[in-house]
Amino acid sequence: xxxxxKHRITHRDLKPKNILLKTSNKDRRGxxxxxxxxxxxxxxxxxxxxxxxxxxxxxxxxxxxxxxQQGDVYAFGIIMWEIYTSxxxxxNMAHPQIMVGVVTHNLRPxxxxxxxxxxxxxxxxxxRKDPKTRPPFAEVTKALLAMLPDNKEWSPLE
Length: 158
Fold this sequence. Notes:
Blueprint: H1 2-6, E1 9-10, E2 19-23, E3 31-35, E4 41-42, H2 59-64, H3 69-85, H4 95-104, H5 117-126, H6 137-146
Antiparallel strand pairs: 1-4, 2-3
């Protein structure tokens, strides 16, 4: 996502289903993540586009149909919650309930008490209501890499 945003591309539907894993001998984990490009748009294309998955839509997209790169950061915060909990957000809610909750009541998934504070804090920063206060992906990448024990040997853009 950092790469896409550097090239002024906004995904608009970032969710686990659109993140693919590919075998890689270059990566110490043995795989790399690839973001499926369907739904991507040049960031200069604004408008009232309600494209995406409701559970991962940023408040500004739900409320005003505004597409910003920071909407992808919001979706990534939701994905962080999904990775940590192995759950789907808002499972027992209808789409209109989710939309009203996210926009009007600042509804966000709740992390379990045993979640590390640094992880919870990063996700919370990603899904802030005001898109201008969300961290850019370069900052998110830096925060995640800082948590790896030997992060000097690995680059997320390989």
